[in-house]
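Give me C-alpha cells for this 183-residue protein.
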Amino acid sequence: MNINTTKPLGIIVFILCLCAVHVSFGQTHKSGDSTMVWSPPDKAFSINVPVTLKDAKTTYKDTSHSGYKTIKLFGGKKSGYVFVVYDLDLVEEATKRSLEDKLGGLEFVLGGDDDYEFVETYIKIGGLDARQIVYANQNKKGLIIDAGGRIYILGLSTKDRKDLDSAVAERFFTSFRLLNEKK
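Here you go.
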C-alpha cells in the first residue's frame, strides 16, 4: 500500500498559513479603540481617529477684520466619543500675534461661551506649539495648535470623564501631524 503524504502535509501548511494571517490581521479591538489615519480634503494634516470625520459644511468666510479668513469644521462620533476638528485660516495680521494672543480665547469653541473652569497647559504636538484645555466640570478636552498661518483645534467630548484619558483620546491628540504648510 502506497500512501501519498504530500497532500495532507500541504493542507496542514495551508491551514497554518491561514491561522497566521487571521492572527496577524484579524485582531479585534474593544469598541471605539481601533483608529485610522484621517486627513481633510486638502491633506493639510493627519490625525488618528476611530471614525471618518465629515465636513460640517459650515465654512465661515470674512476678511473684513484682523482675525480669520475661513473657519472649517469636521466632526464625527462613535461609541460615546464625539470628535471635532476646526481649521482656522488666519489673515496676515493675525499671524504676527504672540502665541498667547493667537491661541487665547478659543477655548469657547470647545466648551461653550459660559464661564466654565478649565486647566490649560502649553505643550508641543508634532513640533508645533499647542494649548491643551481640560474642562473641570465637563467631559470635554481640546487642543489648540498654532501652525503659523493656521490654527487647528481638536476637540473631544465623551459620555464618561475617564474616557478623556483613554488610549483613543491619547492617539487622537498626540497623532496630529502637519502634512503641508498652507499658504
